[in-house]
Amino acid sequence: MKVLVTGTAGFIGYHLANRLLSRGDEVVGLDNINDYYDVNLKYARLETAGILRNNIGEGLAIQSTIYPNYRFVKLNLEDRQGIFDLFQREKFDRVCHLAAQAGVRYSLQNPLTYMDSNIVGFLNILEACRFHPVEHLVYASSSSVYGLNREMPFSTHHNIDHPISLYAASKKSNELMAHTYSYLFKIPTTGLRFFTVYGPWGRPDMALFLFTKAILNGKPIEVYNNGNMQRDFTYIDDIVEGVVRVIDNSPSGDADWSGAKPNPSTSVAPYRIYNIGNSNPVQLMDFIEAIEHETGKKAEKVFMPIQPGDVPATWANVDDLEADLGYKPNTSIRQGVKEFIRWYRQHYDV
Prior knowledge:
The chain is 39% helix and 16% strand. It is α/β, with parallel strands linked by helices. A hairpin with a 6-residue loop joins strand 3 and strand 4.
C-alpha cells in the first residue's frame, strides 16, 4: 500500500512509519517539525530513517537514504493547498493521521494553536480524502476525551460529552467531524483513543522522560495530585501493532446500528472508534518506583496538587479491539520502562 503517515517526526508516527516500511509498504511522511518540544529529537528520529536534516525544505519531498520506499515532506496541516496538492500528486491508498498539537497543559495557554492544527488541519485532511478518495482514514484521538467520566474502565460505549481541556475537546471534535464525512461521503474512518504512550524516542514533555532526566541528573521530580494518580501506560510497540491492524481493516458500517439506541463507537456509516491501552492501570508511585529500579537512583519527590485539565485516573477497555482485531496490548510496565531507560542512556550518553 501507499500510506500517508502524518506526524512522522513525532513519537508514534516515527515508530509507525518504520513498522510499515519494514513490511514493504510505501510511506510518505509529513510533519511541520514545530518547536513544541526539542526539534533536535524530532530531526534525530527522522535521521534514523534516512531523512537527513540538511536535505529538508518546506514542501519538498525528501527521499530516505535508507528506505527506497520512504519519502518525507515538511508541511503544515493548515496549508490547505499544500495538502491538496500532496494528495493529488501521490494518490494514497490509506492515511494514518497522527499529526496534531499535543499536550493537555499547553492547551491552557495556547488555545489557538489547537484550533489551527487539530481542527483546521484535520478538516484539510478530511477534505483531501473527500476529493482524492482513500480506502481508509485512521486518525489519532485520545483517552483525554473521557473527561469527567468516572466509570472505569473507560469504554468507547461511554458518554464523552464533558471534556476538561481544549486538547480533549479538539480530539472529540475530530471524532464528530470524521463521522460526518464517513456518513456524507462514505469515507471509511477509524479513530484511535491512545492511552499514555511511552517508550524509546518518547516525548520529552511526558512523565517518563521528565522523571528519568531529573532522576539521572539528581534533580527533584514534581509528583501531581500528591501521587494519587494512575495511568494506563501503553508501550509504543503495542500501540503500533494496534494501529497497523486497524489500518489494514477498514470499517464498513454496522447494519444493525440504531439511532433509537445509538452505539457511540460505531455507526451505519463506515465509522469506528477504538481504545488502545494496556488495560492495566499503574499507580503513579509504582511507576516512579520502576524508574528508580532501572536507574538505580532514588527520586527526590516534590508533591503537587493536580493540574488543571488533568484527570486522576485512566483505564482502557479494549474489548472491541480484541473482538474485532484479535489484539490486546500486553507489555509490562517494568519491561517498557527498562527499554526506555536503555534508549535514553544510549541516546544522551548518560
